[in-house]
Design a protein that fits this description.
The complex is a heterodimer of chains A (536) and B (340).
Chain A: H1 6-23, H2 30-34, H3 49-52, E1 54-61, H4 63-84, E2 89-95, E3 98-103, H5 109-117, E4 135-140, E5 143-148, H6 150-174, E6 181-185, E7 189-195, H7 201-208, E8 213-217, H8 224-229, E9 236-240, E10 248-252, E11 257-258, E12 262-269, E13 276-282, H9 284-296, E14 302-306, E15 309-312, E16 324-327, H10 333-347, E17 352-360, H11 362-416, H12 422-451, H13 456-488, H14 492-525
Chain B: H1 26-46, E1 50-51, H2 53-56, E2 58-65, H3 72-80, E3 87-92, E4 94-102, H4 109-123, E5 127-135, H5 137-165, H6 168-192, E6 195-196, H7 198-228, H8 234-266, H9 272-300, H10 312-315, H11 325-336
Parallel strand pairs in B: 1-6
Antiparallel strand pairs in B: 2-4, 2-5, 3-4
Classes of the chains: A alpha+beta (536), B alpha+beta (340).
Function (chain A): Part of the Sec protein translocase complex. Interacts with the SecYEG preprotein conducting channel. SecDF uses the proton motive force (PMF) to complete protein translocation after the ATP-dependent function of SecA.
Pfam families (chain A): Sec_GG (PF07549), SecD_1st (PF21760), SecD_SecF_C (PF02355), SecDF_P1_head (PF22599)
Subunit structure (chain A): Forms a complex with SecF. Part of the essential Sec protein translocation apparatus which comprises SecA, SecYEG and auxiliary proteins SecDF-YajC and YidC.
Chain lengths: 536, 340
């Protein structure tokens, strides 16, 4: 156990050096680190919201509301289909989880079913392929029943979630921080993290608004530049574009159709030209208004405006009378899906409720960092003193191992980009105690072997060998607990579990490998002189 | 060859010739522990736990008076008049800092936010908000569920691991000790009315880890001694094993406690309860691995390994406690069917 080959020594030293190298940026301010040459690591440990202050909001969508809205839309669509097919019907309405309608004349039943079946759309856009249908249409006797499928509902929720994320993201970014994150959590939740934010009122207000999507007609003659130079015609207004080129449009202020009338928008491909498109669908009233407008304005552009910014201004190629149409143009797959999501975010104004809020003011965060640093320092010092007092020279080796362990934890957390939280600091302090346990096991064993009359070298060798099994057993059981904490835990538990898991791994390396190497080097330094006493 | 660290001997404070007859106290310890466990369960079911907002929902706000100490009684009067249900107000660390807890509002998440706004408006601008936590009913019930699952999943993972590495008797002893640690810690939190939140679950899980660590070290030694002293009476063997590992148990406990004391004293108010749970848990975990996990083996008995045993006459059991059924089985195993 005590012999180290040269390459192993080099490997251990390299690992330790790497640990120091990746830890060092954390000791300096961001500005200092940025001024370093490029080959040095620049990454710093991201601080959790509890340490740097900030807001954490968990938003939930109302899936019940979504389902209700969809059923209402399905009811209207059914009515439209039946009217177009010129079929007489009565008693159209939402019953439980489906839409039901009675057909007046039995001989029109087949025709009616055919018409309603047109509403069935395969799930998944053309890009991802089909995953079943969104609704099922069943007919029995004189009744036709339209029921959303499980997958259809899931798809609906998922579409609404990506739309809501888009909305929230757009608004949060408008508040001027790039470090905020908006991510999906589970099926129907959105997590917003906003570092450094103290007053969440503005954020909550912004999130609380529903997105405003409108369709406007574009002024036929005057460009935005002309409008700015002279004056905007009455009833028209200049709207900026979302694109970076700073283009603006002169649009009629009263919208042709509003976003509430848009039922759905999905990215796809044109079947003939194979170019990316966005297909969209209006409800009945939207279809009527849009139909009239497009019939009168073939050849001129119309503008899609979201939260007072122009998303896109496509040209009307032909009248869109049925309520569904497609936008094509110079889209890429990405930009098509972005625009579809943007359209949906205006079309499905899902109400978001705040189900969890955690805000930490910067003063508390700063206090926590200070407290954590002090506690960490005192904890490490106390452990080091105890170890050196108890084990002398070998105690010093153990402390060197502990220092390596400390560097490695921080280095690994930095490399992995794990967020440091207050419970994480507590976990760090705790792993120091646990790392020292391995050394205690080894040294107590060496003492025991010495007491039983073994020679110093044999005792040291046996000490490391026998203790290793115990160390492995005890660390693996703790690792099991830590991994489960990480798997199931949320919030503070997770931060703690991450540090603990990394700490268990590095502590084995530090306490066993590094210390053993030091002991081995110490033995070598004794040369041929026979050791009289083991300094433990 | 030069070596930068001079030789100096450590201070071996531990009297190694000590032979404390731990097993003699097992009756007393079991009784005491049973009483504590029963009392903890009783407290849990009668007094219950002072759950934090993580688990019952509601709002928590930590405020700091901008100049001078906070007037708790005035605050209490004003906030209780708001009609937002029960409002708990307590001093938090410094006398300028106050922790306000507002119970879960009826009528869902929106009401929760509204109540929080009322509190902030009532306190006025002299108070800065240091921390706000609002947890709705859906999230709190989820956190409660996953918290419970985490504790039980850890327990099961540990049982399985110990079972694989040792005999089932070790696993059972360890688990009883672990359950004891968790129960008594929960009981203490109930008794003292300390806030029980997510971070306490994290500390419970760590206590599990630490306690099993301790038990495993002792178990390892018992297993080793079972091979080494094939004829030693089980009670005596357990005693020897505990005594042999005692110096390690105490030293490791000391270093762990040193770290946690630092957290408790300097770590700040936010993790105070967490550190306290950890401190208590480490003490109770050390106790349970010595006085519960190992003595449990005395009750359950273990299969004695007879690999490479001495001549048959010697292999026959010489001393066996007649009182314990488990030891009888061990005797039968040792005499009747030497493994492999």
């Amino acid at each position: 156990m005590l012999h180290f080959e040269r390459w192993k020594i080099i490997a251990v030293v390299l690992v330790c050096l790497a640990g120091v190298l990746f830890t060092v940026p954390n000791f300096f301010s961001k500005q200092t680190v940025d001024s370093w040459p490029g080959w040095l690591p620049h990454r710093q440990l991201p601080l959790g919201l509890d340490l740097q202050g900030g807001a954490h909001l968990l938003l939930a969508m109302d899936t019940k509301e979504l389902e209700k809205d969809w059923l209402t839309t399905l009811r209207d669509d059914t009515r439209r289909q039946l009217r177009e097919a010129k079929v007489g019907f009565t008693g159209l309405g939402v019953v439980g989880n489906s839409v039901q309608v009675k057909i007046t004349k039995p001989e029109e039943m087949d025709k009616a079913t055919e018409a309603v079946k047109k509403l069935v759309t395969p799930i998944g856009n053309a890009i991802l392929g089909s995953g079943g249908n969104d609704i099922t249409v069943a007919s029995s006797g004189d009744t036709i029943t339209v029921t959303p499928t499980q997958q259809g509902m899931q798809h609906r929720v998922s579409s609404a979630a990506s739309a809501a994320i888009e909305t929230v993201n757009r608004r949060v970014n408008a508040m001027g921080t790039s470090e905020s994150t908006v991510v999906r959590q589970g099926t129907d939740r959105i997590l917003v993290q906003f570092p450094g934010l103290q007053d969440t009122k503005q954020l909550k207000d912004l999130i609380g608004q529903t997105a405003k999507l409108t369709f406007h007609s574009v002024h036929p003659d005057i460009s935005a530049e002309e409008a700015k130079q002279t004056r905007t015609p009455v009833g028209y207004k200049v709207y900026p574009s979302t694109e970076a080129d700073g283009r603006s449009y002169v649009l009629q202020e009263t919208p042709v159709v509003s976003g509430e009338d848009l039922v759905d928008a999905q990215p796809g491909f044109d079947q003939r030209t194979n170019e990316p498109i966005i297909s969209f669908r209006f409800n009945q009233s939207g279809a009527r208004k849009f139909g009239t407008f497009t019939k009168d304005n073939v050849g001129s552009p119309f503008a899609i405006v979201l939260d007072n910014k122009v998303l896109s201004a496509p040209v009307i190629r032909e009248p869109i009378l049925g309520g569904s149409g497609q936008i094509s143009g110079s889209f890429t797959v990405d930009s098509a899906s972005t625009l579809a999501v943007q359209l949906r975010s205006g079309a499905l104004p899902t109400k978001l409720t705040i189900v969890e809020e955690r805000t930490v003011g910067p003063s508390l965060g700063a206090d926590s960092i200070e407290a954590g640093k002090l506690a960490g320092l005192v904890g490490c010092l106390a452990t080091a003193v105890l170890t050196i007092v108890a084990y002398g020279t070998f105690g010093v080796f153990a402390v060197i191992g502990l220092i390596v362990h400390g560097f490695l934890i921080i280095a690994l957390m930095t490399i992995l980009g794990t967020t440091l939280t207050l419970p994480g600091i507590a976990g760090f302090v705790l792993t120091i105690g646990m790392a020292v346990d391995a050394n205690v096991l080894i040294y107590e064993r060496i003492r025991e072997e010495l007491r039983s009359g073994k020679s110093p070298i044999a005792a040291i060798d046996q000490g490391f060998q026998r203790a290793w099994i115990t160390i492995l057993d005890s660390q693996l059981t703790t690792l099991a607990a830590a991994l489960i904490m990480f798997w199931l835990g949320s919030g503070p538990i997770r931060g703690f579990a991450v540090t603990l898991t990394i700490g268990i791994l590095t502590s084995v390396f530090a306490a066993v490998t590094v210390t053993r190497l030091l002991v081995s080097l110490w033995l070598k330094s004794k040369g041929k002189s026979r050791i009289v006493e083991v300094p433990v | 060859m030069f070596f930068p660290v001079p030789d100096f001997k450590g201070f071996d404070f531990f009297p190694h010739n000590l032979r404390i007859p731990f097993m003699r106290y097992k009756g007393l310890c079991f009784t005491l522990s049973l009483i504590f466990m029963a009392a903890s369960l009783g407290l849990y079911f009668t007094k219950g736990l002072n759950y934090g907002v993580d688990f019952i929902g509601g709002s928590l706000i930590e405020v700091q008076h901008k100049n001078g100490p906070a007037d708790l009684s005035e605050m209490r009067e004003k906030l209780n008049a708001l009609g937002i249900g029960s409002v708990q107000i307590q001093s938090f660390g410094a006398d300028t800092d106050v922790l306000i807890r507002v119970e879960q509002q009826k009528g869902g998440e929106g009401e929760q936010q509204a109540a929080m706004k009322k509190v902030v408006d009532t306190l006025g601008p002299e108070y800065t908000q240091r921390r706000i936590e609002v947890v709705g009913p859906a999230v709190s019930s989820e956190l409660r569920r996953t918290g419970l699952i985490a504790v039980f999943a850890s327990l099961i993972a540990i049982i399985i691991y110990v079972w694989f590495r040792f005999e089932w008797q070790f696993a059972l002893g360890t688990v009883v000790a672990l359950l004891h640690d968790v129960l008594v810690t929960v009981g203490l939190f109930s008794l003292l009315g300390l806030e029980f939140d997510l971070s306490i679950v994290a500390s419970l899980l760590t206590i599990l880890g630490y306690s099993v660590n301790d038990s495993v070290v002792v178990s390892d030694r018992i297993r080793e001694n079972l091979r080494k002293y094939k004829r030693m009476d089980l009670t005596e063997l357990l005693n020897v094993s505990i005594n042999e590992t005692l110096s390690r148990t105490i030293l490791t406990g000391m270093t762990a406690i040193a770290g946690i004391l630092a957290l408790l004293i300097f770590g700040g108010e936010v993790i105070r309860n967490f550190s306290f749970a950890m401190l208590f848990g480490i003490l109770i975990g050390t106790y349970s691995s010595i006085f519960i996990a190992a003595p449990m083996l005395g009750f359950l008995g273990v299969k004695r390994d007879t690999i490479g045993s001495a001549p048959k006459v010697e292999a026959a059991p010489v001393i066996a406690p007649a009182t314990s059924a488990g030891a009888d089985r061990a005797k039968a195993a040792a005499a009747g069917r030497p493994r492999r």
